[in-house]
Design brief:
mainly alpha, flat, 8 helices
């Protein structure tokens, strides 16, 4: 499997991604779906090569084997969560442009939540790693508790704002009343 993946990665690196994207769009036709497919087929190569190198450096370590059952469900959950916005845009992309604009702006609000949660958990992981190196399990528990409390409070605040004052949130990005109306309906549903 590794040899096959390395071969595919090398082929993708040898072929210019912009040319590959143009060919894919010519084959699949115009529209947002062919663009997403072209981007998806060309943007994974660098990350895959980097991840392969990282996996090769740690694959025989015991902690990797014990961490895998925990990491795979979390990674799958993040894949689903991050794909939600793209799937929404693909589905709504067939509608009028007001709906697409409203969806894109509403998703930016949730992107802010994801960005904040990423920052909090990244900071938490740094403290956790430091305390783990010291063998200080008590402070690890404290940091995890603080991080969880902050994440829950901020997520609850975003949820309340999205369901109770979606128009105000949409006005951050636009003054178009129709976009605000459609985006507010979407925020109430997903909030």
């Amino acid at each position: 499997v590794d040899t096959f993946l390395v071969g595919v990665i090398d082929i993708m690196y040898a072929f210019p991604s912009i040319l590959f994207s143009i060919i894919m769009i010519v084959i699949l036709g115009r529209g947002i779906v062919p663009i997403f497919i072209a981007i998806a087929l060309t943007s994974w190569v660098g990350v895959a090569r980097l991840m392969r190198g990282q996996v090769l450096t740690v694959r025989n370590r015991d902690f990797v084997v014990s961490m895998l059952p925990l990491a795979l469900p979390v990674a799958f959950q993040q894949l689903i969560a991050s794909s939600l916005n793209m799937i929404d845009v693909l589905m709504v992309g067939q509608l009028v442009e007001t709906s697409v604009a409203a969806l894109g702006l509403a998703n930016q609000i949730f992107f802010l939540l994801i960005l904040f949660l990423f920052g909090v958990t990244s900071g938490m992981s740094i403290f956790t790693a430091q305390y783990w190196g010291k063998g200080d399990v008590e402070n690890i528990r404290k940091v995890l508790g603080i991080c969880l409390a902050i994440a829950i409070l901020v997520a609850a605040a975003f949820t309340l704002a999205a369901t109770l004052i979606p128009q105000t949130l949409m006005r951050i990005y636009t003054e178009d009343q129709e976009v605000i109306r459609v985006g507010s309906e979407y925020l109430r549903i997903v909030g």
